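FAQ
Q: What does a multi-component entry look like?
A: The components come first, one per line:
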Amino acid sequence: MTFTPAAFLRAGLIALAAVVLEVSGIGAMRVFGASPDLVPLAVAGVAIYAGSVSGAAMGFGTGLLLDLAVGGTMGVSSLVLTAMGYAVGRYREVRDPAHGLMPIPVGAAATLGWGATFAAVSFMLDVGASVSPVIFGEMLMASAIGAVLAIPVFWLCRKILRPSLVIDPFELRRRRGRPREAGPLGLRGLEI
Amino acid sequence: MFDSKVIRRRRATLAVFVGLSIVMLTAYFGESNNGGFFHTLQRGAQEAFAPIETGTDRALKPFRDFFGWFGDTIDAKGENEDLRSEVQDLRQRLAENATGARDAAQLRGLVELRRGEGFPGATRPVAARVIARSPTVWYSSVKIDKGSSDGVRRNQPVIASGGLAGKITEVTDGTSEVTLITDASSAVSGQVMPNGASGIVKPEVGEPDDLLLDFVDKGRRVTEGTTVVTSGFTSSRVESLFPRGIPIGRVTKSDLDEIELYQRVHMKPFADLRRVDFVQVLTAKGTPATSAQVPAP
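Then the predicted structure of the entire assembly, as tokens:
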């Protein structure tokens, strides 16, 4: 991603929308016993198109906004989302996924990773209460919901970020898909 | 292909953000709840976010209700059966309680006993709308649209759907943060009615429909279906944050382990804390200077 004021504004808009929607209503919806979680999807959506550095920055910013908005322990969400954004961004840089259904596994993994890592950090900060095993089932269900929601969320992230993207994985896919009809001029007739 | 400068810059960025997060986390824990940079920042941000959250909450309510309708429809049949049997049980108890209340009033008059401050008599409820909810189960809190200008103060109890919901933990001019009884840090002194067994109501993280009444004396048998209310204890030095008699939940089962010293009672809270849209803050009960915090076991 090119780091211009417009790019920061676009990423900030995505982060703000995800946090406000999550805390003001989406998080209270119950679907098969779990709640949809837009925050990790928004971070993963930006990271997958913009790379690891932008993903880590987006994760940190979104986590900060989330902690400020809900009054949670400052730094916990930032820490987890920074790591998650970086990991998703690195996956894009190393594996270069360009499949049309790529948002599904990435969205599921991001939601599950966010839930599991947040749980691990909360344990490290000494939760003063017993933990129900139901929580693990809810994490898996939230991951499944994340997989479904990832398609529209990633599509929206791409639409918003597109003017600032250096490489768009979906554009790469289109270029790869086109069959080559002829070799370079200098190799014609050489049977290689 | 592997530009070492790019790799270094990438790793440095990650290190900076992780470091900043850890610094924030450490500083936040080091601050007192009343002051400190990060707590002040949080209060300011919550005040700024409030109008956006209120608007978004109202706009999204039809969607929340739509999704809630599916779950409600599935649960309705079983719930109907349960409620019918509960109504029968309550009719019987009402008759007993009416007789008991009349006797108690007469006896109180005979011994000139002052009526203690309890719920709902000594409280002035302020209705508030929930405008934001914590998205993780690890921190169960909600934000409401009433603040210090409406008489809301820290540590005041909050009820929802006739049951205890939590207490006020942060107050700004126009908004407040309610830490729910399902939050990992919550602990409320409760009493089983009518047998009077006391214990500490604690949550089970990840299961908001199941609270634990811990440290209940094994000698006092707690039966399924009995009600747990706030005990509202008062001593010469400290006083409970919650007034006596706020319903918390209904006992669903009791674990009687031979080895354990205490019995552990499971209960379902009266307030549906997953889908709470409106709450009442009990404002008349002042914040005592030396309120007792129940220590975590």
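Q: Is there any commentary attached?
A: Sometimes. For this entry: The first strand of chain A starts at residue 130 and ends at 131.
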